[in-house]
């Protein structure tokens, strides 16, 4: 299961998700909020496994720090109880749609944009910009997709050595993004296991489907050779696509500034 | 540049996803903020004389990414329900798999209250 492979320490969503899978569905949820079987202190930043939908309407308001989400009359807060504000209206609408699309129980593992916003607001692993950039650049050594950069191919198990100049260029390029966008970039790099593919997504050169396909080339080859297993392959593919799409959209919405210039129509 | 296809197709897909999401909550999908925002955005950025307008392509790319997000989440949840959401069988069902039935004792098991 791909959930076990993820190392995202800042958001132990995988643990909550694993417990969701182990829980038989159909029965009424006995516990609302954090269950009693969470060992302290390992689950300090985990969202509750299952909650019933406790609100009717989801609305957006504009506050001082940005756009806020309201569940009925209550303002949405992050897991660390900070007020949930986002800088972009489109992002706020997308988050509100995530909350509004929940039926009966709230499936936190499908709310990727909310999760990314929470991570950016709370910064639970307390990483600064440099640490995020270094975390992303670390994947460069094992990147299996190369664009037209001076990196040769390698047949050894260690992989090619990346010239320092390339690394510097990459670091300075990533430094041009703001903190929120960097959280998103680091997330996508972790999902796709590739810096190059992530940059391709940010630069509008690849669609999410293409990037995910390239990230899974080995798996796709094996599937074509040996057949595909719906409950594993398709399941992981959809999950990877969802996370990558969320991360990509998050970065784009956090780094843009929309200005509408009305051009004079010359008839 | 990524090959995205016609914007109309992306918009149609997005509206379809919104419709699926609203079907569960009961409210018409035209009422949602997302619908209003998307329709407004697509309408506003359609009129441009430049064929290679990057801003227009960027918006279409974001729309296509959002469509991918909504579609993948829906398919993921559907797959989860189908393959991973059933939990364990009850004891009766498990016995029934091999054609056995649980014993029925009219007086109870004795040690039950």
UniProtKB/TrEMBL annotation, chain A:
It is found in: Mitochondrion. The keyword S-adenosyl-L-methionine does not apply. One of its GO terms (cellular component) is mitochondrion. One of its GO terms (biological process) is mitochondrial proton-transporting ATP synthase complex assembly. It holds the Pfam family ATP12. Its main location: mitochondrion. Keywords: Chaperone, Mitochondrion, Transit peptide. InterPro entries: ATP12_ATP_synth-F1-assembly, ATP12_ATP_synth-F1-assembly_N, ATP12_ortho_dom_sf. Transmembrane segments: none annotated. The keyword Coiled coil does not apply. Belongs to the ATP12 family. This is ATP synthase mitochondrial F1 complex assembly factor 2. It comes from Myotis myotis.
UniProtKB/TrEMBL annotation, chain B:
GO terms for cellular component: mitochondrion. InterPro entries: FMC1_homologue. Belongs to the FMC1 family. Plays a role in the assembly/stability of the mitochondrial membrane ATP synthase (F(1)F(0) ATP synthase or Complex V). PANTHER family: PROTEIN FMC1 HOMOLOG (PTHR31716). This is Protein FMC1 homolog. It comes from Myotis myotis.
